[in-house]
TrEMBL record, chain A:
Reactions catalysed, as given in the entry: geranylgeranyl diphosphate + L-cysteinyl-[protein] = S-geranylgeranyl-L-cysteinyl-[protein] + diphosphate
Record keyword Amino-acid biosynthesis present: no
Enzyme class (EC, first level): transferase
Described purpose of this protein according to its UniProt entry: Catalyzes the transfer of a geranyl-geranyl moiety from geranyl-geranyl pyrophosphate to cysteines occuring in specific C-terminal amino acid sequences.
EC number assigned by the record: 2.5.1.60
Source species of the chain: Brassica rapa subsp. trilocularis
Protein name: Geranylgeranyl transferase type-2 subunit alpha
UniProtKB/TrEMBL annotation, chain B:
Places the protein is found: Cytoplasm
Protein name listed in UniProt: Rab escort protein 1
Segments of this protein annotated with the region Disordered: 533-554
Biological classification of the source: Eukaryota, Viridiplantae, Streptophyta, Embryophyta, Tracheophyta
Compositional bias ranges of the Acidic residues kind: 539-554
Amino acid sequence: MHGRPRKAYKPEEEAASAAKAAKLRALQSQFMANHHNKIYTKEAVDLSTKLLEINPEAYTAWNYRKLAVEDKLSRIESDPDLVKTILDEELRVVESALKQNFKSYGAWHHRKWVLSKGHSSVGNELRLLDQFQKLDTRNFHAWNYRRFVVELTKRSEQDELEYTDDMIGSDFSNYSAWHNRSVLLSSLLTRKADGFLPNKKIPDEYKLVQNAIFTDEDDQSGWFYHLWLLDQTVNVETPLLTSSWPLHGSRINLSAGCSNGSFSKLTTFGSESGSFPLVLYFDQAVCGVSSSTVTIDSELKGNEDLVWEPVSKKNSQVSCVWVARLKYISSEPCFGKEYKVKVRVGNSPGIVSSRGCNFSASYEFVFTAHVHDTVEESSQDGIVSWKDGFDIWDAESKDLNALATLDRSNAQMDSKWRQEAIAEEIDLFRELPDSKIGKLTLARLLMAKAMISDDAVKGVHYNEILELCKDLMALDSSHYQYYKDEHSVALLRKVTSSTEDLSGHLFRCRNMNNSVCLRLNNLSLSRIASVEKLLFVQMLDLSHNELHSTEGLEAMQLLSCLNLSHNRIRSFSALDSLRHLKQLRVLDVSHNHIGEHSVDTTRYLCSSPLSNSEWPQDEVGSQMPSLVTKYWDAYFVLRDLNLKQLDITGNVIAGDEFSSFVLQVVPKLVWLDGKKLEI
Amino acid sequence: MSDLPPYPPLDPTTYDLIIVGTGVPSSILAAAASSSGSSSVLHLDPNPFYGSHFASLSLPDLTSFLNSNSLPPPPSNTHDFLSVDLVNRSLYSSVEISTFEPETLEQHSRTFNIDLCGPRAVFCADESINLMLKSGSNNYVEFKSVDASFVGDSSGDLRNVPDSRGAIFKDKGLTLLEKNQLMKFFKLVQTHLASSSTEHDQTAVKVMSEEDMESPFVEFLSKMRLPQKIKSIILYGIAMLDHDQDNIEETCEHVLKTKEGIDRLALYITSISRFSNAHGALMYPMYGQGELPQAFCRRAAVKGCIYVLRMPVTSLLLDKETGGYKGVRLASGQEIFSQKLVLDPSITVGVESLPSLTDQQKETLRVLVPKAVSSKEKIARGICIIRGSVKADISNALVVYPPKSLFPEQLTAVRVLQLGSGLAVCPPDIHALYLSTVCGDDNQGKTAVLSAISTLIRPQVPEDLQTDSIAENDTAVTKPVVIWRALYVQELVKGEFGGEISSTSSPDGNLNYNEIVESAMKLYEQLMGNKELFKEETENTAEEDDGDGVEIED
């Protein structure tokens, strides 16, 4: 039960419990003897009954009973009456065990097992459940079992929904009831049951949960449900293509890399290998992106069977970001020519979200690739400086607009009721300003509103969110980091919400073929977001922030230079996502905390030496096993990067030993900590 | 008198205490005194039933009780003592009884248990319940929950009193912000109660300042920025106040301090959670309020108290020399003696015998001498037997009409309690509706009660007009119809300790018995000299759980 203080035992109670333990021990050893000798006589089974009625947690006894039942059933040759008697006896034992402790996993499981045999009547089960759920309304065992019984009896989801109405009505602090409600509604809405249209039903649900929240804002159960509702309002089940690179209608310049030396101010893309990445960014993780689901129609030769790769953790075939490399320098000369590329996503079915929804609305985009015969101006081996040689980008500039078409609303969404619902919630929660959770919810609602509306007041919303996050950081210091992250997300969304906002941070790097450089330094960012709008960025300055990890940057496939100096990165594991950036050449991670912790403790799941199966076979690994063991996190990241310039000073890990290790792992490195390496 | 069977003589003839009248306070005294072990108690009642002014009666009995007039005592005399004749004075005035469907009443004549002192219900955390538990008299009564309580207005709408977290959540009349404000206020009160219950803890934060506690409750509610609607619910629907708190100048003597207001809320809040099988703050005894005095009387009888009903006391016997109290003469003519005497509030000394008394004798009798009453406050009561219910699907419910809610001149709150056959007080499909309001004079009180009646129920319409009225007003159809109605005004008499002769209180204007129980306990202390009331003797005979009844047990 909930909210009942535990009392210290009185001496007589302790004595009683000791006596009980002695009795249990005796029973237990007798029972174990029976079990080992496979004795299933009536006396032996009765002994297990006795044991379970005292201690329902004795799961071995439950298993023994299963064996005993199987044994009995094998003897009686399917006389239905006898079968029923045997199974009914099991149900009776479970019931009395549950009366002793209705949170016994073994007992509930045994009951399920008996019922799955299919000979018992299930009509009684809901009655029994009502009894247990009255005793403890939040008992999740009972709720789980209830779902099992409902499925077995084919009781309608509508009836179950009504049951949650009753349970929530009698006590709205019932997480289990709210949770079951969300499960039932999800199913009813997905299969579009009669009267369950999202645009009607979800506003009704908002009204219900508002009552709970406003009655007692300190009760969390309602807030969880509200969060779920908001998710239902903002997100659509079917995956959508959020953005791509290149964008629809854009014109990209590609450098051929070898020709007559004419000088151009054009920003060029493309790598040494004569290919450029094609990036698809979905709103949720999908699988099944391939040359059959995504077709390319272009005059560029040799791209018939493009290989699409998910930009995600190793071995995962599910990702928001998918990339393919389009070749533009093939055997025949192609300089000075323009090529139209038509990409059709979802041409044939196969792109499926991790929740199992199909990418249904096929989407087509066209861009032009212009291959110039310009020479890359700077020497391949020059040091890249983050200080000089940057030009401001004119906000009105045509090529800027071509790069970043930022407002792309999803026409597929029936967004009217969603916008109305969110606007209503915002008005309401503005009236509940005193509470932490009220502010947080308001911030989330505003974020949702800014996301699904394409009005010009987005910036106003983001400013309000930023203020709310600041308030929350001050109010609730124990969740400071969470609010800080939200603040960063909002800030980045704001920066990327319009070309005006973005242009203030955009530069051209003269020394790097006018590469597009985005400077987001000194913004006290703790998290990266809005990457889908920044796919075109080639140089990214994130220095002087509070980043713990580079998660999110993996989508920026054009990135060649990254400045992460003066952040809070604590290990190379936190840079794991950079391994996906095939064009990354310059990395500055100086003045971080690398080496303080070899494991990124800010994440629950991270790579460790043990998760890498190829560990022993590696060449470098076999040459200097002790260093690899010592710097394993650096090893796994740096090994996959193709860096020419690395800055590592100002970290705990930095030092002569580490430098020599780096030289071994990254043989192509030219600049280390600002010094040119002798080759 | 001659048709009564002859009274058997009582034996013994001397007691420590004689109590006349079996109302709630008298019965508590009898039970407490008998349980103390050292006192012999004789408990008399002139009526053929238990409960006096707190009884539950059939309709004819109720009618005749309300209409009973003061009987002139038979002239009597005695040689050894000075005899002072007693008069049984009626507490009721402006009694008005109307029967609309005599045949229906005839048909169910014995299924009614109608309270004289209604509307009355008990809070689960009431003093009377504590006392029942302490005395063990809880074994003789079964309670059931009052299902709902409402605040009404002249439009006929009944709004739920959102008195708990769950009720606020489900309420349809409050806006979200009002829900928030009300719940916040409840939480504040709860925090305050929790912190004041652990007063020794120095770290406990004072939630409410001393200054706040002394200020008028209504001002404190305004300070908490509660809107008028919620203030009205708290003041009249939860704290159960009678007088208009918004016009403090006019009724300053009735202004409730925050401290008292918080106490009343505390009673309500603790009531809601006291018994696991009670779903609300209020409950009502099966078979009527008359069961309560009976329960105490049964407890007293178990402990050795002697009971004689139908036994009026005709005169007091005083010592000729000292003028001190000696005993009483019964209607049977027998003389019984005791140390002390406690009388029902309706018993007084005949005015004609006053001039002949000496000052000493007057001193002995001071409790009985009618005085110029300081507060002229009375209580107007109404009883309606109705077909149908004031709220669909709800049988037992409390309705409160705050001051000015029925008509602009309404000075005091009108409380209405509807009870149904589930409580064994009336036949199925019929409800007993009790109304009351505190008033300065009979007319004012009856006007308010009648106004509430006309808002809630439909008058009987002659057969030929009925169809027209239905067509004319559809909503009227759902209103219940009155079958029988009684209106009366009851005097409020406070009990008094007078040394040898004391008196008990009449039913008061409250919904519960707290003040009556308090005054009875105080009187007991004065009579018995600080002897502990019901020293722990709860035998805790576990009651059988019989479904929806509320078991009151510790």
